[in-house]
Design a protein that fits this description.
Strand content: 5-15%
Distance between the termini: 80 Å
Radius of gyration: 29 Å
Structural class: alpha+beta
Shape: elongated
Strand order of the largest sheet: 2-1-4-5
Number of strands: 6
Order of helices and strands: HHHEHEHEEEHE
Helix content: 25-40%
Amino acid sequence: MSTDSPVNSPIKPESSFGVRLRNFLIAVVAIALSVALVLGLKSETSSVSLTSLDEQSTPLEVALTNGKPSLVEFYANWCTVCQKMAPDIAQLEQQYADKVNFVMLNVDNTKWLPEMLKYRVDGIPHFVYLSQKGESVAQAIGDQPRTVMASNLEALVANSPLPYAQASGEVSKVSASVAPAGSKDDPRSHGSQVAD
């Protein structure tokens, strides 16, 4: 037998203190990385949420009767374009709060179905500009640059034609099922056309 076998090796096993110190350092580094990751993700998200905008918005009933023009936004919390635009809407609301009503209507709330039908909302965000009398003067659908929206709001306040009256941008589609599932008469079902 050889004297250089691992059993007789001159290397001493690591002491229990060394193992505990190494494990402690690994735990500290893992915690530090976790905290850095959480703080990094928090700074990436917008500080303005759609829920907070909704809570601060003017109720539709008030907006239609208080004699100020209004910007009505149809949105949903799951809408990525709506989320992206939330900071711009918040800035516009701060800038025009004394001149314009800002109304937020969540399309997931069936309470707003009559308004969705009235303004033909099929993509969100869907913006409706209302005159001081509560009449629709223009609509914009999808992602809108803040400068475009500000120009429209300036014109709305001045009671003049909106420069970007029918603007369209990127949207999140709002859809509902067209045909009942499992219907044999569904023209999209090609199974009935196959000969046996």
